[in-house]
Design a protein that fits this description.
This protein has two domains: 6-18 and 119-362, Rossmann fold (3-Layer(aba) Sandwich); 22-91 and 100-115. Helices cover 40% and strands 15% of the residues. It contains 14 helices and 14 strands. Helix 1 (22-35) crosses helix 6 (100-115), helix 7 crosses helix 8 and helix 7 (120-136) runs parallel beside helix 14. The radius of gyration is 21 Å and the shape is globular.
């Protein structure tokens, strides 16, 4: 397989355009929980229990714990035998809560509100710049010093940008990429894993995604952690079409919002198994993956990168990760030598686009 066709976007790829960083989201989350009756003692106990085992007490971790409080039997089974033993041993492992299910709903409502505030003009300008330089690259060096042709590709004709098809993987909940493709009427070229059935858009990755090397006008978007516009309904997993401002996020719908719980084991369940299988498959073949704004805190994603580095000798990574990039990459030192680190923030420093281009054209792992 030839060609540059992978982008991996973390929260840092969206934060400059409005959606919160994980840290900002966590602070807001704690504020909501306090308003709903969580004492500082309870919150400290939850956070200390995570830190004590080297886990980060961020929004995703707090949401996972609250989902366990709301549906304890289901979540204990999913977490495994040790969790079952500990839960059985500690009769008071769930703190007294008035409405644990509603606590989950309120956090998802918070997520929706925060991720819907987007500066699309800024996002469009920076993604135009990114896709433009990717369209200019004619060949790329990689570990074996071979060259991969970037012939063909999708044409963003309305902007005059010649951009090769990009397969975009993201852990973000926001819908910036979808809105980017909507801005200039390019939506038909974006494949999200959903197909239209009457007035609904239903999860069907086998029919929606296009992975054939001969494709010329399709961009596959794979959202590994769910999204603020994806829900479990009677029809299956449904992508809602109305914008959040129209108020269709009722409590009963928010309850079923597709948000990834932070257990490695959940990656064995559909749809997450399907999504992570796609990530692993692409990493096993591609010569380059450009990683933007990801902090390498997700165990399932980290394992996919580690396995890909071990099996795909041609793979190199280009990591745009803000001033903490060098610190972040050390969370998985197994991939550090195959990664070109650019310690600049996408959407903040225009220079990072030029550095991505330079890395694509001239850099390869030694």
């Amino acid at each position: 397989m030839t060609g540059l066709s992978m982008l991996f976007l973390g929260a840092g790829a969206s934060a400059p355009f409005g959606p919160p960083t994980m840290q900002e989201l966590t602070v807001a989350c704690e504020g909501i929980l306090r308003e709903r009756g969580f004492s500082d003692t309870t919150l400290s106990k939850i956070k200390d229990s995570l830190r004590g085992f080297g886990l980060v007490p961020d929004f995703e971790a707090l949401l996972t714990i609250l989902q366990s409080f709301a549906l304890p039997e289901r979540e204990v089974r999913a977490a495994g035998p040790l969790t079952a033993y500990l839960a059985h041993s500690l009769s008071d492992w769930i703190p007294p809560l008035k409405e644990p299910a509603q606590d989950v709903v309120e956090l998802k409502r918070l997520l929706t509100e925060k991720c819907s505030k987007v500066k699309m003009d800024d996002a469009t300008r920076h993604y135009d710049g990114l896709f433009s330089i990717l369209g200019e690259i004619k060949s790329i060096p990689y570990a074996a010093r071979a060259h991969a042709s970037l012939q063909g590709g999708a044409f963003l004709q309305s902007r005059g940008i010649n951009v090769r098809t990009q397969d975009i993987f993201t852990t973000n909940y926001d819908i910036i990429i979808e809105q980017y493709f909507d801005c200039e009427g390019m939506r038909e070229s974006l494949r999200t894993g959903f197909i239209h059935q009457a007035v609904r858009s239903i999860w069907n990755p086998k029919e929606s995604y296009v992975w054939d090397d001969q494709r010329s006008r399709s961009t596959n978007l794979v959202k590994l952690h769910g999204s603020i516009d994806q829900f479990i309904t009677t029809a299956g997993i449904e992508k809602r079409q109305a914008p959040p401002s129209q108020g269709y996020y009722a409590s009963e719908m928010l309850e079923e919002m597709m948000i990834f719980p932070v257990h490695e084991k959940y990656a064995t369940r559909s749809p997450y198994f399907d999504l992570f299988s796609l990530l692993r498959e692409r990493l096993s073949h591609e010569p380059v993956c450009i990683v933007i704004g990801f902090s390498f805190r997700d165990e399932a994603v980290n394992n996919a990168f580690i396995d890909a580095i071990n099996t795909n000798r041609n793979l190199k990574l280009i990591y745009v990760g803000s001033e903490r990039a060098n610190e972040n990459i050390q969370r998985i030192p197994q991939i550090a030598k195959r990664t070109k680190v650019i310690p600049l923030s996408f959407g903040v420093h225009d220079e990072c686009i030029n550095q991505i281009k330079s890395a694509l054209e001239t850099w390869y792992p030694t």
